[in-house]
Write a structure and sequence with these properties.
By secondary structure, the protein is α+β, with helices and mostly antiparallel strands. The chain has one domain. The protein is built from one helix and four strands; from the N terminus they run ββββα. Strands 1-2-3-4 form a four-stranded antiparallel sheet, with helices on one face. The longest helix is centred in the C-terminal third of the chain and has 11 residues. The protein starts with 13 loop residues before the first strand and ends with a helix. The protein binds zinc ion. The site of zinc ion has 8 residues, from loops. It comes from Natronolimnohabitans innermongolicus JCM 12255. This is Small CPxCG-related zinc finger protein.
């Protein structure tokens, strides 16, 4: 019997990202399916690409 393995089935859909919230500086969690990040403190949702760009710019 063939089985389809869903990579998300056995893991949390949230992946801790190495980015800080753009609003409050809290930790962001990346929602792997939708490519969005959610702040664990203020629950703001950001597009992963926007967060990435902002963090790169801030590090300059
Ligand atoms: Zn926040």
């Amino acid at each position: 019997m063939a089985e389809f393995e869903n990579p998300y089935a056995e893991h949390s859909p949230f992946v801790r990202a190495h980015f800080d919230c753009l609003d409050c500086g809290g930790k962001l969690w990346e929602y792997a399916i939708d490519k969005q990040m959610v702040c664990e403190d203020c629950r703001s949702v950001f597009d992963s690409a926007d967060v990435f760009d902002d963090q790169i710019a801030a590090g300059d």
